[in-house]
Amino acid sequence: MTERLYAVTHNGPNHKFSIVNSDGQLDRSYGGDLNAPRGIAVDRRGRLMVADEYNNRILVINLDTLSAYPLALPGFELNVPFSLHYDTASRRLYIGEWKGGRVICCKLTDRQP
């Protein structure tokens, strides 16, 4: 049987994104320069995205290398992104802002990195 893994974000002395097993044991984590990581979404290509609240960006985290890069969102300046939802059928990413008070909807393409 394959062990189930779960993605979680957490704050405290160290802001991190972590993968834990079903017993809550740490498998691996990404600390990077996260500042209040919040919502998590996975798109149809398997890219894992994290709302990096106080850095005003969405990070795409590579689970193999635990490296990350900001998701390009042309035309949008985020104002404290908090929650994420990805709709597989429409290929749309919904971003809920804390301070901006908006829900931003953007279509992700297979050409985006």
Index terms:
three-stranded antiparallel sheet, mainly beta, Neuraminidase, globular, 113 residues, four-stranded antiparallel sheet
Question: Mind explaining what this structure looks like?
Answer:
The protein has strands spanning about 5-10, 15-20, 25-30, 35-40, 50, 55-60, 65-70, 80-85, 90-95, 105. The protein is built from no helices and ten strands. Helices cover about 0% and strands about 50% of the residues. It has a single domain, classed as 6 Propeller (Neuraminidase), CATH 2.120.10.30. The termini are far apart. It is an all-beta fold and about 110 residues long. The chain is globular and about 40 Å long. The mean pLDDT is about 90.
Q: From N to C, what is the helix and strand string? A: EEEEEEEEEE
The major pleated sheet works out as: 4 strands, antiparallel
Strand adjacency order, main sheet: 4-5-6-7
How many distinct folded domains?
A: 1
CATH topology: Neuraminidase
Q: What is the approximate shape? A: globular
Q: Write out the CATH superfamily name.
A: TolB, C-terminal domain
Overall average pLDDT: 89
Structural Rg: 14 Å
CATH class: Mainly Beta
Query: At CATH's second level, what is the architecture?
Result: 6 Propeller
Q: Unreliable runs, pLDDT <50, ≥5 residues? A: none
The proportion of residues in beta strands is over 45%
Give the total of beta strands. 10
What structural class do helix, strand and pairing data support?
mainly beta
Please give the count of helices: 0
Q: What is the distance, rounded to the nearest whole angstrom, between the alpha carbons of the first and last residues? A: 33 Å
